[in-house]
Design a protein that fits this description.
By secondary structure, the protein is an alpha+beta fold. The protein has two domains: 2-176 and 394-475, Zn peptidases (Aminopeptidase); 180-391, Alpha-Beta Plaits, CATH 3.30.70.360. The chain has eleven helices and 23 strands. Strands 9, 10, 12, 14, 15, 16, 17, 18 and 19 form a nine-stranded antiparallel β-sheet that branches. Strand 4 and strand 5 (100-103) form a beta hairpin. Helix 1 (2-16) packs across helix 3 and helix 5 crosses helix 7. The chain starts with a helix and ends with a helix. The protein binds zinc ion. Zinc ion is lined by residues 72, 111-112, 141, 165.
């Protein structure tokens, strides 16, 4: 078995010698097609450059159901010093230290080159027993799963997908979220008013990833900013000039700012005290979660400005207060968030207010329900909504012989229970499962640390164990 793991490393190093960052996949795709050609294996290389390689069952496995081994051929190509290495053209400098493989000054691309290397080593071997195999190598997973979305799987017979794109040994991922982006526009009426102008900024929030951090109940900078402004508008008449929070729909905003006129400001000191009071209340509300909430405000002398009417200003704030935020529901079967909503970008200028949401759910019907709910709230506040980038989730299957088998083999090989879990982020499994009626999938992988960074490293002992684990799953009838 050790000899065959050497073959895995041989292929992994060949892959590392070929630049293969996302959108730069022609060469790696041709390498895979050439691999199949050289061995007389049937293969498909499609227009997107996805590659599927087929291999017949080994003797004795002809009656076993076919299996799909799947990974993505692109990597996140990041480099410490772009003047020294051109990730578009140069291969990686691989090194080994303390049992870890890494690439000097760059990402390693074990995410997901290790999946490709495992599959090639199996396809290359005459000795490894397995049922009919379909090795599916997708392009551009890291930049929106374009390959998985566009791939035609109609020539594939397998209904059992082993995706090797997880990064923690001992975990078997069995469900993931799908998603859709929502954009909403709100128009408002402007008027010209002369009044003191306030600049207010909210800082110090943790922010985070809208999928993997959403269960932490962190404050969303856009919603919290609106809450602060709502509170101020309970005591003062305010007219919004501008407002902004967040930069990406899939990140939780960690700050926000607004500019507005206050037509009944009175004593500026009283206003500042009122803002301080709001800050103290929020600090209490988020104690233990957000410990660095900071609100700063500055007041300018009365000036004439174009701003939104009081009614439209309140309409914007009310929308932001009413639209759901964060975790909507949890999954009953595995410990994971099922459905969530993140307001990632808030922008208000003279043209009006726009918001961008990332909506995630592992259950298609819940995703649709939430889209409808958000749309209703938008419409009730005179907003217009559009959706884009819809991709399917991967719902937890009540019954899955493949999952049962991977759990049983893990238990038998390693003498302990694997952690069967779902993740509230995207994996290609969702897209692929949705293309094959009755398909089931699991996602596994060896320990990869700091993926997507130049500190990425592959745990070699772990890679060896997962290799043997994959071979055992294939050989078990
Ligand atoms: Zn990956």
């Amino acid at each position: 078995m050790t000899a065959s793991f050497d073959r895995v490393m041989k292929f992994f190093k060949e892959i590392c010698a070929i630049p293969h960052g996302s959108y730069n996949i022609d060469r790696i795709s041709d390498y895979l097609a050439d691999f199949a050609k050289a061995r007389g294996l049937e293969y498909i290389q499609d227009d997107l450059k996805n590659v599927i390689i087929f291999k017949a069952a080994t003797p004795g496995y002809e009656n076993e159901p076919a299996i799909m081994l799947q990974g993505h051929m692109d990597m996140v190509a990041v480099c410490d010093n772009p003047s020294e290495k051109d990730m578009e053209k140069d291969g990686l400098d691989i090194a080994e230290e303390d049992g870890f493989l890494f690439a000097k000054g760059t990402t390693l691309g074990a995410d997901d080159g290790i999946a490709v290397a495992y599959a090639l080593a199996i396809l290359d071997s005459d000795e490894i027993p397995h049922p009919a195999l379909e090795a599916v190598f997708t392009v551009d997973e890291e930049v929106g799963m374009d390959g998985a979305t566009g791939i035609d799987l109609s020539k594939c017979k397998s209904k059992r997908i082993i995706n090797i794109d997880s990064e923690e040994e001992g975990e078997i991922v069995v469900s993931c979220a799908g998603g859709v982006r929502l954009h909403a526009d709100f128009k408002g009426e402007l008027e010209r008013i002369t009044a003191p102008c306030v600049f207010l900024s909210l800082d110090g929030l943790l922010g985070g990833h809208s999928g993997t951090d959403i269960h932490e109940n962190r404050a969303n900078g856009a919603h919290l900013l609106a809450e602060i402004l709502c509170n101020i508008s309970e005591e003062y008449e305010i007219h919004l000039i501008s407002m902004a929070a967040g930069e990406k729909d899939n990140a939780i905003p960690s700050s926000g700012s607004a500019e507005f006129l206050v037509s009944d400001l009175g004593d500026p000191d009283d206003f500042m005290l009122y803002v301080e009071e709001i800050e103290n209340i929020l600090k209490d509300d988020y104690l233990g979660i957000e410990n660095n909430i900071t609100i700063t405000a500055g007041i300018q002398l009365p000036q004439e400005s174009m701003c939104f009417t009081k009614e439209d200003t309140l309409n914007f704030f009310e929308f932001l207060a009413e639209v759901p935020d964060g975790v909507i529901s949890y999954c009953d079967d595995v410990d994971m968030v099922k459905t969530s909503l993140n307001l990632g970008i808030l922008l208000c200028t003279e043209a009006g207010m726009s918001v961008d949401f990332a909506l995630r759910s592992s259950v298609e019907s819940e995703k649709e329900d939430l889209v409808n709910r958000v749309t209703d709230v938008c419409i009730s506040h005179n907003g217009e909504v559009s959706a884009s980038g819809d991709y399917p989730g991967w719902e937890y299957a009540k019954e899955s012989p493949l999952r049962d088998k991977t759990v049983a083999v893990y238990r038998e090989m390693f003498g302990k229970e694997p952690l069967v879990k779902g993740i509230h982020a995207g994996l290609e499994c969702g897209v692929l499962v949705s293309k094959i009626p009755g398909a089931e999938a699991v996602s596994i992988g060896p320990n990869i640390l700091n993926a997507h960074t130049t500190k990425e490293k592959l745990d070699l002992e772990s890679a060896k164990r997962i290799w043997e684990y994959v071979l055992k799953i294939l050989s078990m009838k």
